[in-house]
Amino acid sequence: MLKIGVVLGSVREGRNGLAVANWTVEKAKAFSNAEDVQFELVDLADYDLPFLGKTPTAEQGAAIGAWSEKIASFDGYIFITAEYNHGVAGAFKNALDFLKPEFKDKAVAFVGYGGLGAARSIENLRVVLAEQGLASTQRTVNFSLITDFENMSTFKPAAFHEGELQELLGQLIGWSGALKTLR
Ligand SMILES: Cc1cc2nc3c(=O)[nH]c(=O)nc-3n(C[C@H](O)[C@H](O)[C@H](O)COP(=O)(O)O)c2cc1C
After folding, report:
1. Among 113, 123, 120, which Cα is nearest to 145's?
2. Tens digits of residue pLDDT in 115-166
3. How many angstroms is it from 82 CA to the middle of ligand 1?
4. Residue 35 alpha carbon to ligand 1 centre in Å
5. What domains are defined for the chain?
6. Phi/psi class of residue 143: alpha, beta or left (left: φ > 0; alpha: ψ in -120 to 50)?
């Protein structure tokens, strides 16, 4: 049994990312055998992390521990990412900087949304996450804020993205299983 964390990296109030994350979990479950692989949504907004380097309050210390423990519990990840100024959202990068051993010898895939499907943010993340020990899959799913959302806010994904997600899942599950034997 593989456990895949679907990690939502935007904490913005009114974020578009929640609909994308829910779609990803729902479709991933539909396209997979539940006896082989489980998917769980991990919402960064549930973890009140301080900026790395600031002395945490007791509550923030507990949040750092809970974030680490949750992330460590998975064999692989699907990161749901927006694009902010051609890069990853600041809160997401800050949260990732708390982690490293939790990611070692695991796999990650990306579902992005933005003007260009968060393509630049995803390429940015690949470089960051390689340093943290994650192998990133070739296939991504890239939603356009123009054509996959109404008024850039109501998620209406084109059907062809389901095929992209299936290909992404094949790569991610394959690598997650292979890397589990390495760990
Ligand atoms: C400060 C800021 C910078 C942004 N920069 C980009 C960008 O470089 N490329 C892009 O495609 N979208 C950009 N956007 C649009 C966001 O990708 C879009 O608002 C998206 O819905 C954000 O994700 P969220 O709603 O889940 O927080 C930017 C938005 C903000 C607020």
Report:
1. 113
2. 999 999 999 999 999 999 999 999 999 999 999 999 999 999 999 999 999 9
3. 6
4. 37
5. 2-182 (3.40.50.360)
6. beta
